[in-house]
Design brief:
Layout: H1 3-28, H2 40-45, E1 47-54, E2 57-58, E3 66-71, E4 75-81, E5 87-98, E6 101-109, E7 120-128, E8 131-137, E9 143-147
Antiparallel strand pairs: 1-2, 1-3, 1-9, 3-4, 4-5, 5-6, 6-7, 7-8, 8-9
């Protein structure tokens, strides 16, 4: 990949991250989101997160690239970029939260994840300071995330 292509990919990725942060900020002030923000956990989950591993195997936030999850009060999206800024994964949908039971329903995806559209995945979730842990219930997706800064 040429340097110009990497630069263009990085700029597109940065623009996407800025757009996602803007959407998150706008949705925090949306009255329709008040129900989703009724608990402290629901409020704490909103924002941008960087994947850092699994329980017992937590790494540092990557210096470049990474896997990012963005949440509003009702929607989520996940984006992975390689160190050059090229987006290599993207999928998302809606979610519900009942106590600490978190259920994601995938509604859109890139070609790698398209087969999961329409499927729901259940987790237990907790947020402690700037760390969120999702433990898959009936699925293998147990992950640790750090709040993006």
């Amino acid at each position: 990949m040429s340097k110009a292509t990497r630069t263009q990919s990085t700029r597109r990725f940065v623009a996407f991250v800025i757009l996602a942060h803007t959407l998150v900020a706008c949705n925090r002030n949306n009255p329709a989101q008040k129900e989703a923000e009724s608990s402290q956990l629901a409020h704490d989950m909103i924002g941008a997160w960087v994947h850092v591993g699994r329980p017992g195997d937590v790494r540092e936030i990557p210096a470049e690239g990474g896997r990012f999850k963005f949440r509003t009060g009702k929607h989520w999206t996940l984006v992975r970029a390689d160190p050059t800024g090229l987006v290599t994964e993207q999928f998302g949908g809606t979610y519900t939260l009942n106590g600490n039971e978190y259920v994601e329903t995938q509604q859109y995806a890139d070609s790698h994840w398209i087969q999961d559209n329409g499927k729901s995945f259940k987790f237990t979730v907790k947020v402690e300071s700037d760390t969120m842990t999702q433990v898959g219930v009936g699925n293998p997706y147990t992950e640790v995330w750090k709040r993006a800064k």
